[in-house]
Amino acid sequence: MAVKELTFIIVVCSCIVCTTEVEFFTSTDKISELFNEEEFLLKTFRLYIDSEEENVKIMKRLLLLLQLGSYLDPDDPEKIKDPVAAYKLIRRVRTEWINIVDYTQRSLYQLYQTVLKYAQIPQLKDLDGAASGLIRLQEIYKLYPHNITKEMALNADEAYHVGLVAYNEDKFQHAFHWFLYSVDSLTQYSNTTKENLLLYLSLSAYHFGSLPVAIYFGQQLLNLDPTNEEIKVLLDLFRRLRFQRSSNPDIFTLNKESSKFETLCRGEVDERTSKRQRALSCRYSTGGGNPRLMYPPVKEEVEWDEPRIIRYHDIISDREIEILKNISRPLLSRSLTTEGVSKDRTSQGVFLMEDNIVVARISQRIENITGLSKKSAESLFVQNYGIGGRYEPHYDELGYENGRIATFLIYMSDVEIGGATVFPDVGVVLKPKKGSAVFWFNLRKNGNVDLNTKHAGCPVLRGNKWVANKWIHVFGQEFRRPCSLSYLE
Ligand SMILES: *[C@@H]1O[C@H](CO)[C@@H](O)[C@H](O)[C@H]1NC(C)=O
Ligand SMILES: *[C@@H]1O[C@H](CO)[C@@H](O)[C@H](O)[C@H]1NC(C)=O
Ligand SMILES: *[C@@H]1O[C@H](CO)[C@@H](O)[C@H](O)[C@H]1NC(C)=O
Ligand SMILES: *[C@@H]1O[C@H](CO)[C@@H](O)[C@H](O)[C@H]1NC(C)=O
Q: What does this protein do (predicted)?
């Protein structure tokens, strides 16, 4: 039975053209797929073991049958007196040989290797990327290992790995904290050792400029392993340097300097003072009275005045969102920047073609709402973010002649914590709200880039962030958004 099932899985597997190169860490949605992958792996492994057991049983039975067929007395030197007996012997040996070859050639091992070949397994770069995402989250949200592991602890080996990734990224303070966490989590089953961790603690402390701490951990290592020549040399060096260099005594304060982008992401500032807030408004709009653009009223809110950022509420239904996600899921691939694949943008996305009725309807709706022609717009770009998924501050405008005049950004999910869209130069924080969209012009009426439209996507601390972007271009807007020669507009 198990043999048949395993064979069936192999047939199914070979029919699906699986791509083995999947990137996991840049899409929360892809990571959830790993749950199914894990279940599949464990199930087929169980099946493989069952099949092997079954096969061994069959082979043992065959052996028994073959042995029964051999009835001559092995001790009789003149066994073959009878030509018929000779014939039978020849025939029997030949049949046995065929049967044995047949049964042993059914190598389930080979078959199972085929199954494994099609499995989608995270690569080392996924593992390192996930650790890197955790570290990035810590940096931006000022989190210590104990903050970020409040819901789920890491074991000593896991914490050591995260520490190593931080160390290799020259983030020595973060590395130090992870190595400390790892020491605290050591058990007899840990693969990493206290000696190894003490060495890294000492080195990290040295790199972030705390020589007394580097010496302290170096000395601990030497006490544990008095024959360690490497640490003796290092300790000598640290002690000599100690009298030459000033030290950073504060090992527990993480990144004191943070950019405006980071402070905004943490929600520490919001420039929208109550006075300014009151001036901003919320109303129902019907296309500004332009008869060509009349559409059912849309709830519109002015999020900011300069640059003017409008939030439209409930412009896409949950069902439409589900459909967009369903079409996008199998097509997602790593989002690029103008430089290609970049650490500045950790998400996966796909441009959806308008031959899909829902995509076309949403495009039309955007045209109706903004009053801008969709003719020269890019197709809808759906995006899903990964661990610590973010997009560093950038302009949407690409500097081409027919540039991205405006951006329409649809939020397709709520995000529990993080994931806001921020405009660091003006101090605006836009929180994702499922079904709503925000809209702004990247270009001024005089055609110049509005420098205040630099924006960024904050890392997702908790949740699954989905957005859809519609970038509208200059061509086709000549009569819809009159241009101006004034350098002020
Ligand atoms: C992290 O933990 C420290 C100390 O327990 C606490 O003071 C701080 O508020 C926590 N930070 C966050 C963002 O939860
Ligand atoms: C255990 O540690 C050794 C030496 O540090 C390393 O080579 C090996 O890959 C580790 N094994 C696991 C399962 O992490
Ligand atoms: C989206 O896909 C899921 C899973 O395949 C399916 O259950 C659901 O009905 C689909 N939703 C829509 C609106 O097509
Ligand atoms: C766009 O506006 C046109 C004209 O008012 C209307 O017929 C159409 O239903 C609208 N389309 C969408 C998707 O809102």
A: Catalyzes the post-translational formation of 4-hydroxyproline in -Xaa-Pro-Gly- sequences in collagens and other proteins.
The C-alpha atoms of residue 125 and residue 269 are separated, in whole angstroms, by 35
- Residue 364, classed as helix, strand or coil, is helix
Q: What is the DSSP string of 330-379?
A: GG-EE--BTTBS-TTB-EEEEEEPTTSHHHHHHHHHHHHHH---STTPPP
Residue 310, SS3 per DSSP: strand
Give, in degrees to the nearest 5, the angle at Cα 143 between 140 and 149: 130
- Is the four-CA dihedral 118, 123, 129, 131 of positive or negative sign? positive
Instruction: Say if CB 471 and CB 377 are below 8 A apart.
Output: yes
Kindly state the tokens that stand for 149: 């592991």
pTM over 0.85: no
User: Ligand 4 pocket check: which of 293, 294, 295 to mutate, most ligand atoms within 8 Å of Cβ?
Assistant: 295
Ligand 4 pocket residue status of 360, Cβ below 6 Å: no
For position 257, what pLDDT does the model report?
Answer: 61
The residue whose C-alpha atom lies closest to atom 12 belonging to ligand 2 is: 191
Strands (E) in 368-473, as ranges, are 380-385, 391-394, 404-411, 417-418, 421-423, 428-430, 437-441, 455-457, 460-462, 466-473
Kindly give the parts of the chain with pLDDT less than 50: 17, 19, 274-275, 288-289, 291-292, 294
CB 386 within 8 A of CB 31: yes
Could you tell me the domains of the chain?
2-118 (no CATH), 124-242 (1.25.40.10), 270-473 (2.60.120.620)
Residue nearest to atom 3 of ligand 4 (CA): 295
Nearest ligand by distance to the CA of 361: 4
- Which ligand has the nearest atom to the CA of 461? 1
Q: How far is the CA of 326 from the centre of ligand 3 (A)?
A: 6
CA distance 362 to 354: 9
Please confirm whether the linkage preceding 307 is cis (ω < 30° from 0). Answer: yes
Residues 100-158 have pLDDT tens digits of: 888 777 678 888 888 888 888 888 888 999 999 999 888 888 889 999 998 899 999 99
Residue 486: how many other CB atoms lie within 10 Å: 9
Tally Cβ neighbours within 10 Å of residue 31: 18
Residue type, 443: L
- For a ligand 3 pocket test, name from 36, 319, 322, 382 the mutation site with the most ligand atoms within 8 angstroms of its C-beta: 322
| Ligand 3 midpoint to CA 390 (Å) | 27
| Lookup result for tokens 């789920």 | 152
